């Protein structure tokens, strides 16, 4: 279990570093300025993704048949905390431009895909 969590964490860190710096480079090269911290958005998604995976790993260890429901609940909580923490960014008084909206959604979908793949591998490795 610890080995799987650590390998998942290494994958998340590697993806975080590569994609964040690429994303930042693209924004800087096009001289686009965000009204929020891109680093905070990536950090939140990376940390939340690791927590979600860890929670599902724990549930799969004790109640393997309920791991899918744990993933679903954790994703809903992740979305709720994201909206709560980035409320001013998501619902600004001035409408966000397309590149600003994409810069919010890219990390979210990237890390949700990584979570889904990691958890699918976890659930396929468990025997029910």
Give an overview in words.
The chain is mainly alpha-helical and 128 residues long. The chain has one domain (2-125). It has five helices and no strands. Helix 1 packs antiparallel against helix 5, helix 2 packs antiparallel against helix 3 and helix 2 (38-62) packs parallel to helix 5. The longest helix has 28 residues, at 2-29. It is elongated and about 50 Å long. The chain starts with a helix and ends with a helix.
C-alpha end-to-end distance: 17 Å
Total domains, how many? Answer: 1
Strand content: under 5%
Helix content: over 70%
> What are the secondary-structure elements, in order, as H or E?
HHHHH
Question: Which residue ranges are poorly predicted, with pLDDT under 50 across at least 5 consecutive positions?
Answer: none
Sketch the major β-sheet. none
Number of helices: 5
Q: How many strand units?
A: 0
């Amino acid at each position: 279990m610890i080995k799987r969590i650590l390998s998942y964490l290494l994958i998340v860190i590697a993806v975080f570093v590569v994609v964040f710096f690429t994303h930042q480079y693209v924004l800087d090269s096009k001289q686009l300025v965000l009204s929020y911290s891109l680093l905070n958005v990536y950090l939140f998604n990376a940390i939340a993704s690791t927590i979600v995976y860890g929670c599902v790993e724990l549930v799969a260890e004790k109640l393997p048949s309920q791991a899918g429901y744990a993933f679903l609940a954790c994703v809903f909580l992740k979305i709720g905390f994201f909206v709560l923490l980035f409320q001013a960014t998501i619902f600004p008084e001035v409408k966000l431009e397309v590149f600003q909206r994409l810069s919010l959604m890219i990390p979210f979908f990237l890390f949700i895909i990584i979570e889904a793949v990691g958890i699918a591998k976890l659930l396929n490795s468990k025997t029910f």
